[in-house]
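Dissemination and training. As part of the outreach component of the grant, students in the summer workshop were shown how a complex can be specified as a set of sequence lines and then modelled as a single object. The example used during the hands-on session is reproduced here so that future cohorts can follow it. Participants entered these lines:
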Amino acid sequence: MSYLQIKNLHAQTGDIKILKGVNLEINKGEVHALMGPNGSGKSTLSSVIMGHPDYEVTEGDILLNGESILEMDPDERALAGLFLCFQYPVAIPGVSISNFMKKAVDARHPEGKAPAGPFLKEMRENMEYLDMDKSFANRGLNEGFSGGEKKRMEILQMMMFKPSISIMDETDSGLDIDALQVVAKGVNKMRGPDLGLLVITHYERILTYINPQYLHILMDGKVVMSGGPELVKTLEEKGYDWVREQVSVTA
Amino acid sequence: MPTLNLPLTDTPSLLGGFDENLLEQNRKGEHALLQAKRTAAFESYSKIPNPDRFHEEYRRMDPELFQIAKFSPLQIPEAAATYKPEEEDSNYDVVISVSSEGVAVEDCNNVLSDGKLVVMPLDQAAREHSTLLEQSLGAGMVPGEQRKFLDLNGAFWNVGFFIYAKKGVDLKGGILIRYYNDQADTVLLPRLVVVAESLTRFAIAEQFTSPDGVKTLCISGRELLLDAAADVKLVSLQDWGNEGLHIGEDWARVKRDAKVNLFSMTVGGKVSKMTVGCDVCEPNANAYLGGMFFADRGQHFDQKTLQFHSAPDTYSNMLYKGAVKDNGYSVYQGIIRALKNCVGVDSYQTNNNLVLDSTARADSLPGLIIDADELACSHGATFGNIDQEQLYYLLSRGIPEGEARRMLVMGFFDEVIDRIPFENMQDHLHKVIERKFG
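and obtained this result:
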């Protein structure tokens, strides 16, 4: 049984049906990439997994460690081991990074409060690893951050919260090569038997730095093709039109 | 044909016993300078009709709400009271406490002994600094309709302080004036006159508290005169108990290269009307007006700001942040005024409101009056509940909903609170926000 199981997932926002029967399984220790053209439902899938209130699941199920999470609020899903690296992290002026990180780490601590010393040390080390300046900790969360700074902030959280399953929603979009390398560095440090990764991307760029074991292609709300690393190369050469042809041939 | 039949009656009883007899009582035995100032204020006060709720200024806050006639002046003994230190006092260089027991002035860090910084009651200042007090008391006043209450304060103030910093004074800790009123049905009329000579830097805090369930009224007047390159911060923390009523008026006149920070924090009491204004009157004068208000459980808070630019190349920035919940009602009104030929003015006015439930109400009326060209003025107001995307982000990080909401409201206010120069006041306000979230 896979750690994260997405079964025949149908979801909509308002009357617009976006996911139309997604099936996907991810285990700890695995790295999956999910690609698809614009509007195929990639970001919706990540929002539905995390429990965004704008989306309604109409059919199917999401199981984490064998248990359905559909009735869980986003904070409960996070504490159960899910993490979402946002494509567009929202800015929250007035809430400092250090305060925010402490509250989030406290929420995960069995006694509800993590000791300050080890927390600060770990945060400082991770920030250094991601080439983030110390002064960051006092800034408002994502307030006035560049695209690269926002993504580093997301990776920093992933390193601090140690999820079982992490979904990276187009983490590579809007990044220059330096930022991309730092992001990949953080992700690769986290790789290991305790983490399952779903890397959602529009381009194959980030896959140069993060080598996935599996690639899935999402089209019109469904996973239409899955394969190994060789599929990345084929897709790069032949494009989504080729995928469409293949799908219509088999359909 | 139907006729509009409004009860346009004057309200002669509104101000009760604030009359000539009381004036004479106040003047008795006083220094001639103070007597003259009281008389002048009383004459002006007598000429202005009583405010009523049909007047634009009071449309959203009926002056009858203050029930002024029901209060008699708080009796403050003339003999100095014993100073009772509190934990927070370690943050300040000078602590003044005012209550029905009297006035205590404590020079905690020995900053008054060399005479460069003067902090004293107004009657002592009348004797020792009469020329300066003659020029400053009543010199910096909020113009306009609300003059009635400022003149009332000018004629009837029952406690007053003079803070005077001579050239070069640079104070680390600051000055705290703590007002505490536990006497039911009494009115406190505090007056504060601040004179900052050039190149001075200091901060003042005024804090107002009373026990819950005790009906009190306060009519406060503060004036600040800043000379060239002075840097003065004034924090007003209105945290009266649940039966407190408050009217306050602050006015700062800011000269060349000087900078004033006026913070008005309104969280306590039942009804409050604050007016904070500045005149940046010489080039490169700068004013920051920061405000917070949080009205819940039927509290009614009205705040007004005035940013006067009477010289070219002057700057002002105003940020007022409010929240309402649980039948709370808040009003914000503001005016930026740039006089003719005042080019190069840079002025901002922002009022953000969090409306946390449907029983509460927030009104905002920002405004500009511009008689000059080539300047940058902008104003804006926002209303809304907690941002759902921000809330979702915090939830997705495992932070429980109650905590996430608290963090967002705290963060909303911190944009202003973080600029307050006193850490203990920041902590106090954070605790108040926690309390209101209950």
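The first helix of chain B runs from residue 20 to 27. Students were then asked to discuss how this feature might be tested experimentally.
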